[in-house]
Specification:
The complex is a heterodimer of chains A (106) and B (125). With 106 residues, chain A is an all-beta fold. Chain A has no helices and 11 strands. In chain A, the strands form 2 sheets. In chain A, strands 2, 4, 5, 6, 9, 10 and 11 form a 7-stranded mixed sheet that branches. In chain A, strands 1-3-8-7 form a 4-stranded antiparallel sheet, with no helix packed on it. Chain A is globular and about 35 Å long. Chain B has 125 residues and is mainly β. The chains are: A mainly beta (106), B mainly beta (125). Chain A binds chain B through residues 32, 34, 36, 42-46, 49, 55-56, 87, 89, 91, 94-100, and chain B through 35, 44-47, 59, 61, 95, 100, 109-118.
Chain lengths: 106, 125
């Protein structure tokens, strides 16, 4: 059974700075990874699929990288609306989410 | 506009049943696989079930197999989740979510490009 591990659990970053979020799979999932953003009281929003492809309407400051077992979501210059919880999800097997990274204002 | 709207949540006693609905609008519902995903209070996301675009195949997470049934009515643009034998651990916000479609509805991508706002199910005596 695949296990998805996100790190860190909480990340404190100042607006305008870069944020780097990590997601690790316990076995290879090739590039079958998606990233979602969830704000309090809202549904998740798809950001990235195929590990690197931005979903429709997602700003270019969001980028995804990685393959196999190690993946990264980078937000190049944080805006106020980017502070949220981020989940990775593998779909190489049955869909499975990581436990989330809370991105908070420093 | 393109949206999914869930309904049917509420409070149920353990062992009882609830049926959730998800009304789709603004896109060709019959061309997409559809999922239910849940989120327990203060917790992460858990995929629950998938139904293919034409209802031909259904898949479930092990914890709900034999208790939950996913279905759809493409003439009404509506997705359903029948939840029987409810347990306390089923307490969660339930989201319906759309599977990606690049033109061939028979292909399931297993990630979610559109979500509803969710409906809360509380199982408590």
């Amino acid at each position: 059974e695949i296990v998805m591990t996100q790190s860190p659990a909480t990340l404190s970053v100042s607006p305008g700075e870069r944020a780097t979020l990590s997601c690790r799979a316990s076995q290879s999932i090739t590039s079958n990874l998606a990233w979602y953003q969830q704000k309090p009281g809202q549904a998740p929003r798809l950001l990235i699929y195929g590990a690197t492809t931005r979903a429709t309407g997602i700003p270019a400051r969001f980028s995804g990288s990685g393959s196999g077992t190690e993946f990264t979501l980078t937000i190049s210059s944080l805006q106020s609306e980017d502070f949220a919880v981020y989940y990775c999800q593998q779909y190489n097997n049955w869909p499975l989410f990581g436990q989330g990274t809370k991105l908070e204002i420093k | 506009q393109v949206q999914l709207v869930e309904s049917g949540g509420g409070v149920a006693q353990p062992g009882r049943s609830l049926r959730l609905s998800c009304a789709a609008s603004g896109f060709t519902f019959s061309s997409h696989g559809m999922h239910w995903v849940r989120q327990a209070p203060g917790k992460g996301l858990e995929w629950v079930a998938l139904i293919r675009y034409d209802g031909s195949n259904k898949y479930y997470v092990d914890s709900v197999k034999g208790r939950f049934t996913i279905s759809r009515d493409n003439s009404k643009n509506t997705l359903y989740l029948q939840m029987n034998s409810l347990r306390a651990e089923d307490t969660a916000v339930y989201y319906c979510a759309r599977d990606q479609n690049y033109g061939d509805p028979s292909v399931t991508y297993w990630y979610f490009d559109l979500w509803g706002r969710g409906t809360l199910v509380t199982v408590s005596s």
